[in-house]
Amino acid sequence: MRNEPAVSAVICFLDAERFLREAIHSVWAQTFTDWELLLVDDGSTDGGRAIALEMLAQCPDRMRLLEHPGRDNRGISASRNLALQAARGRYVAFLDADDVWLPEKLERQVALLEAHPEVAWTYGPSQRWYGWTGNPADARRDMWYPTYVPGGTIVSPPDLLTLFLQSGGAAVPGICSLLVRREDALAVGGFDDRFRSIFEDQVFYSRMCLHHAVLVTDDQTTRYRQHGTSCCDSAMLRGDYDPFLPNAGRRRYLHWLRDLVRELRCEDAALWKALRRELRPYGHPLVSWPWSHLPRWWARSKRVLKELLRRALPAPLLGWCKARLHRRAYVPPTGWVRFGDLRRREPMSRNYGFDRGLPVDRLYIERFLAEHAADVRGRTLEAGDDGYSRRFGGERVERCEVLSPQPDMPGATVIADLARAEHLPADAFDCVVLTQTLQFIYDLPAAVRTLHRILKPGGILLATVPGMSQVGDYQWNWCWGFTPHSARLLFASVFQDSALKVEAHGNVLAATAFLYGIAAEELRPEELEHHDPSYPILITVRAVKEVAGVVGGADACEVAA
After folding, report:
1. What is the arithmetic mean of pLDDT over 281-287?
2. What percent of the chain has pLDDT over 90?
3. 187 belongs to a structural domain
4. How far apart are CA 11 and CA 24, in angstroms?
5. Maximal C-alpha separation, the chain
6. What's the confidence (pLDDT) of residue 294?
7. For residues 325 and 310, what is the distance between their CA atoms, to the nearest angstrom?
8. 315: enclosing H helix or E strand
9. Which end of the chain has fewer surrounding CB within 10 Å, N or C?
10. In degrees to the nearest 10, what's the CA dihedral of 20, 22, 27, 30?
11. CATH number reported for the structural domain that contains residue 541 in this entry
């Protein structure tokens, strides 16, 4: 069993006694429980340290209190770097002492990074949280700030940094919505200690964006508390920051970023164009004068225009205009969703869509098998019939066996329940094709052990299991539904990690169509090809049985969506 936790949660605090306890409780309330919590005291002079010690005493095995030598105040960047060095988890999540996580934050984001080994970090939208006061008027101001990236998108470097600059910082996420692989955060240098308060997060994002891909989701898991003593408000009072006008803090960050991009010899044209545009207000006074005043005029004009449009346009039309302006999908306001033919309690088909065409999950199954057709060879075993083995294996299949737990099933050559199949010979099959079968087996670990045992060394298992699905007429013997994370854990208990590839297929539209029994032919190709890890219809597994003396191989462990 692994002693290190999966996630190291980090809360840095400085004179934060007012909200610290609530932030800690939001970590304790996570549905994902494999975490440690690092509290970093950045030289607090109020009761924050006493609260930290009190909470630490309640959970000493999972919490640690860190501080700088002499209990110095060294700034938020140095404090987070201290936590990065001390963390034991393979993932790190930061939480400001005045913010909170919603309970499923870690569970969702850990699953995403497990499913996407090619990305180093993930984040989603944060709520601008005014309603923490309990005042209904404040609660009406709560809003989820958009990411400006479609949910489920993997952004390659340095495209996300370009978007941050093009948006003038509007697309920059809150640090509390982030989950990052610790080794990747350390590899880019973590945070820059010279940025003690503001723009320290954008410094870190810039380093990550220039080196690593990121998965942007639409999971709403973080609340960013709005109050007059926050870091940004304090910087505004000092004159270091302004959300609309050129300011000293942004000048310092942009000059730092320009030096970093030069140092890395990044030649991305779009990035340099956006960076030069953002630097205009900070050049020579004769050149920068109009750029330093235009934001003020534009901000005032926008406020007046927004108020006029809010009063003149109906809510749905106003929402549609905003969506078009920001180039994002229009989401109808509450009460304005048009369900059309989907406003019904009966599906279009209770037979998964077979009576209308090819079911959506079958399309994904056949694409998976076509992708790995070369694996279907030699002596194969397939559940139910040999249709897929013959279709995708062709002449490579020397002998095809058909598995069934029922002896009277036509065409069956191997009679066995995979959970109790000690009579099946070991090392017998070059390939096992197992589509939509495991959900009917209650003892899944025993079934997976059988599959591993009956494969020859180097043999390949091609399996599919359902995610979101109707159960049809199988409601009395359908035992399980799956996620990419649960499928990976199940097969990794027997197969080597380096020999596993787990993928999720589907999106919210495809899942809705599948649940209604709408066939794949009734959707456009681009609607089926987009995969959103939050809505898996089908999970596919390719597992290779290890060969004695060989570890790993060309097919590295992969969980993707």
Report:
1. 64
2. 75
3. yes
4. 8
5. 90
6. 64
7. 15
8. helix 315-326
9. N
10. -170
11. 3.40.50.150
Q: Considering Cα of 517, then 522, then 528, then 532, what sign does the dihedral take?
A: negative
The CATH number covering residue 41 comes to 3.90.550.10
pLDDT band at 338 (very low <50, low <70, confident <90, very high): confident
Segment 406-443, tens digit of pLDDT = 999 999 999 999 999 999 999 999 999 999 999 999 99
Looking at 239, 270, 301, the residue that finishes a domain is 270
| Contact criterion met (CB below 8 Å) for 515 and 352 | no
Shared domain check, 367 and 247? no
pLDDT bracket for residue 20 (50, 70, 90): very high
Q: pLDDT tens digits, residue range 347-368?
A: 999 999 999 999 999 999 999 9
- The pLDDT value recorded for residue 303 is 76
Q: Taking the chain, what is the end-to-end CA distance rounded to the nearest angstrom?
A: 27
Cβ count within 10 A of residue 411? 9
Find the domain containing 464 and state its range. Answer: 360-560
User: What b/e sequence results for 492-510 when a residue is b if at least 16 CB atoms lie within 10 Å of its CB, and e otherwise?
Assistant: bebbbebbbbbbbbbbebb
| Dist. CA 487–CA 385, nearest whole Å | 24
What six digits make up the tokens of 159? 């495209």
Question: What tens digit of pLDDT does each residue of 215-261 get?
Answer: 999 999 999 999 888 887 787 777 778 777 788 888 899 999 999 99
Instruction: Tell me if 258 is assigned to some domain.
Output: yes
Question: For residue 325, is it within any domain?
Answer: no
Residue type, 184: D
All residues at 6 or more sequence positions from 492 whose CB lies less than 8 Å from its CB, including other chains: 500
* Contacts made by residues 392-401, CB under 8 angstroms, sequence distance 24+: 393/431, 401/429
CA–CA gap between residue 209 and residue 215 (Å, rounded): 11
Instruction: Please report, rounded to a whole number, the percentage of residues in the chain having pLDDT higher than 70.
Output: 94
pLDDT at residue 297 is higher than 80: no
Tell me, what amino acid is at 453? R
Tokens 């509390």 locate to: 176
Q: Sign of dihedral through CA atoms 502, 505, 511, 515? A: negative
Q: Is 321 part of any domain?
A: no
Residue 520 CB burial class (10 angstroms; 0-12, 13-18, ≥19): buried
Structure tokens, 455: 């494969």
Query: 366 and 244: one domain?
Result: no
- Six-digit token pair at 157? 């470097």
Q: Tell me the C-alpha distance between 375 and 397, whole Å.
A: 10
Distance CA 118, CA 113 (A): 8
Hey, what are 496's tokens?
Answer: 């080597």
